[in-house]
Amino acid sequence: MARRGHEMPTPGAPSFVQELSAYRQGRDVILEAKVRGNPERTVQHYWDGNEWDRQDLEGRMRKEANYDGTIKLTIQEARRSDSGTFRLVVTNIHGSATSTCNVRI
Known about the structure:
By secondary structure, the chain is mainly β. The chain is built from no helices and 8 strands. It has strands spanning 12-25, 28-38, 42-47, 50-51, 61-65, 70-75, 84-92, 95-103. It has a 4-stranded antiparallel beta sheet with strand order 1-2-6-5, with no helix packed on it. A 4-stranded antiparallel beta sheet has the order 4-3-7-8, with no helix packed on it. A hairpin with a 2-residue loop joins β3 (42-47) and β4 (50-51). The protein is elongated. The protein starts with 11 loop residues before the first strand and ends with a strand. The model has no long low-confidence stretch (mean pLDDT 87).
């Protein structure tokens, strides 16, 4: 049962409300996107074709996923060697969606 003023989300494949984009915040680079899709989704991050892992950036990466569908990837103390093509793949039982962003530092 939905709470008053809150509708139950309609089941569906993930889609991007906001495509993956990058911006600087001080010495950090933030990659951000916003997705929708129901039921809950899994998120995979890729950097130059390889799945992105904390070890890839020597622990300088932070991932966030918020209930409103916002997904943020923060590269702390970004370096020129962190440049590349970043891809976000969001999947649930109804399908998947992909968004890509090129980052030059």
